[in-house]
Amino acid sequence: MHESINSYLREILKESSADVSGKLAAYIPRLRDADENLQALAMVTADGQECSAGDDEHLFTIQSISKPFVYALALDDVGIERVREMVGMEPSGEAFNELSLEGGTGRPLNPMINAGAIATHHLVDHSHHGEHPGGRQSVSRTAEVRSRTSRIMEGLSAFAGRELSIDWDAAEEEYSSAYRNMAIAHMLKSHGALDIEPDEAVRGYIDQCSVLVTVKDIARMAATLANNGVHPETGVQVVSPEAARTTLGIMATCGMYDASGRWLTQIGIPAKSGISGGIIGVLPGQVGIASFAPRLNDEGSSVQGVAMFQHLSNELSLHLMSNQRINVIEELERRG
Predict the structure, then answer these.
(1) Backbone phi, then psi, for 205, in 5-degree steps?
(2) CATH at residue 331
(3) From CA 219, how far away is CA 177, in angstroms rounded?
(4) Do 101 and 226 reside in the same domain of the chain?
(5) Is there a domain that residue 240 lies in?
(6) Other residues' Cβ atoms within 10 Å of the Cβ of residue 19
(7) Average pLDDT, rounded, for the chain
(8) Residue 133 has what pLDDT?
């Protein structure tokens, strides 16, 4: 894409930087010590055109942005009926780390909150024997856990179009204080929503969340969902069109936790945030968008990232419910 589009993105970064509210995720040491002045924004179209601005080469842990992609992998690995048997599809209206389950079924309400993500993680194919090592063996990082991590790493790498890696030090750091997630996993186990031991599920889930990405990586991953599961640059069918479509539906209604309704109303883009400061958004058939800025609001989403998406939604008429929505690819080319 042309330099003028990158310049347009830089203007959005400048405008959003005025908001210095929010806080870093203090309960995870690696995130607590992050540079709160980092900012980045990237867009990748469904036909493979890219633009980005700011700290777009900065690596950060993917955290909860991994959830929709692992959900899509699980849908293809075990089928939608098995996934729905174990994980619901309804908005929770609660914080991402709430200890709660769906009344009557004992399932997590959806795969975007931690309870649902932990349950989803353990559904991914663990008979896979890929090249990724899956981490150092330990009591909780069993051969099954490592095999499942290998499958997830190959899947996430295919979404990104390059080989990704895990920050193992960050994973160990986070696992050592994962009391809340461990409580969630024990709750799942007690209700029959987990087929492996709680410590194994949490270990694998935290390894999944410790994958290192740049804002350009997650924009490409989002663009793959936008493109019916096909990576727009490599041409690889990473997940089926059905898995991509189902995942986007869940992102639209549940991806921004207890702010999902407000996000869908005001911004109108299926999205997912992470506590390291990233947000992805997907406009089906058109574009994947990603932002990064570490300061978080009360719902655990990037304050400046929300502002970036609001600006793009307004400026480019990206709201799914808008009857004036434009073709993003054509508009970006016009600006170029």
Answers:
(1) -65, -40
(2) 3.40.710.10
(3) 30
(4) no
(5) no
(6) 14
(7) 92
(8) 72
| Residue 238 domain flag | no
For residues 88 and 178, membership in a common domain is answered with: yes
Domain count, the chain: 2
Tokens of 64: 């909860």
Mean pLDDT by runs of 10 across the 336 residues of the chain is 81 95 88 94 95 97 98 98 95 79 88 96 85 78 94 97 96 94 96 95 97 98 98 98 98 93 96 97 96 95 97 92 73 66
Structure tokens at 7: 């310049």
Query: Is residue 308 domain-resident?
Result: yes
Handedness of CA 31, 36, 40, 41 (dihedral sign): positive
Whole-angstrom distance, CA of residue 320 vs CA of residue 7: 25
181 and 315 co-located in one domain: no
Question: Does some domain include residue 239?
Answer: no
Tell me which residue range forms the domain holding 188: 63-212
The pTM (predicted TM-score) of the whole model is: 0.95
Angle formed by the axes of helices 241-254 and 66-78, nearest 10°: 140
Q: How far apart are alpha carbons 28 and 25 in whole angstroms? A: 6
- Residue linked to tokens 């008979």: 127
Q: What is the pLDDT of residues 2-21, one digit of tens each?
A: 677 888 999 999 999 999 99
Residues 144 and 249 in one domain: no
> Radius of gyration (Cα) for the chain, nearest Å?
18
Three-class SS of 95-107 = CCCCCCCCCCCCC
70-105 b/e with 16+ CB inside 10 Å = b?
Answer: bbbbbbbbeeeeebeebbbbebbeeebbbeebbeee
